[in-house]
Amino acid sequence: MWRPKVTCRVYLLVALGIFLLFTHGFADDFGGTATGVFTNPSGPSGMVVSGTGTNFFQWGTTTVGLSSALRLNPDPTLFSGFYGTEFSFGTLVYYNGSTEPGTGATSVHLIDTLTFSNPSGIVQAFDFTLGITNTPNPAGGGGSDIINLNPPSNPTQTFSAAGMDYTLSFTAFKDAGLNPLDSFQVAENALATANLYAIITVTETPPEPPDGGGQVPEPSTMLLLGSGLLGLWGARRKFKK
User: Considering only CA atoms, which of 26, 45, 150, 146 is closest in space to residue 96?
Assistant: First the structure.
């Protein structure tokens, strides 16, 4: 029985066509960069702070080791994801250093700004107020200072792009095991981290086109579909020969 000769080129064409058809559906719906700065620290009259207006904030004076600090890392942070799915847009790092009484801050604001590249031209920001409790260090050992990870004052925001309405919502601070966190409480000279998570949902469906034929595929989708079909058509011609 005669069987068509299948060459490596045919296999490559088929594989390329299938790849192009399916990978577009898994592309991220949105993406961009997040940057953060610490602002508006508050505390006693003897408060000593540095790094206001940057992504690294330090407070208190110390005679031993380093003073306490918060850092938003990395800066900028790349983020991306799918609508309706949580995504991370930064990591907050806390170092519990030695703080002399009366020199530490009691709170600081973190302004985390998300600048979208897709959809382009969208900028949104969360305003967090982080509470700081500087506990006295007992004789012979370090104390566990506390950072209260409060949700932002504006946890839910809306924006529009290309005729669509979206809702951006902060969801939680989470540790490496994806467990929600509401505070840092670590021993002196120790580190703690928390990832910031949010979610974007589509709040409006685009209107049907005038002819009632449903949504018109994007040009990129049509190009990928055409490329996939061309690959399959080329394979079919090879089989016939």
Answer: 146
